[in-house]
Specification:
This protein is mainly α and 137 residues long. It has 5 helices and no strands. The longest helix is centred in the C-terminal third of the chain and has 29 residues.
């Protein structure tokens, strides 16, 4: 792919990436990801969750299913899921990721606008501008 991108575009892309990485939303995401990925309690619960998921899958592949065992495993999976998703580091990570993703989407929308000269349709006419790609349709 590198042979299809000019040196100028590569340099501009690198400069844009540096600006994105310097943005507070991206930095908050990186910090939250590090906390989340290194939290011992989360790591332990995720490992146990994955083991139980594998055990549940194994139960479904047997010819004779042990419904009591399946219910027991599923109950523990549900408990772990609840504990993981209610953990503060997980919630902080998800919130920071959503904010960072929204920021990157805004950057992509601006890049698309400068390439095409049109804004993407939001399907909400109150947000339209004169440069909306749906204008006049």
């Amino acid at each position: 792919m590198a042979e299809y991108i000019s040196k100028e575009i590569r340099e501009a892309t690198e400069a844009l990436a540096k600006l994105i990485r310097a943005d507070k939303r991206y930095q908050a995401y990186e910090a939250a990801a590090e906390v989340y990925e290194k939290a011992p309690a989360i790591l332990s619960m995720i490992t146990e969750y994955n083991v139980h998921q594998a055990a549940l899958s194994e139960q479904f592949t047997h010819g004779e299913r042990n419904e009591e065992m399946i219910a027991c495993i599923q109950k523990r999976i549900d408990e772990l899921y609840e504990a993981i998703t209610n953990n503060a580091s997980y919630r902080d990570f998800i919130r920071a990721k959503e904010e960072s993703d929204a920021f990157v989407q805004m950057v992509n929308a601006e890049l698309d606008f400068f390439i095409t000269g049109r804004r993407a349709c939001t399907h909400n006419c109150s947000t339209c501008h004169a440069d909306c790609s749906s204008a006049g349709k």
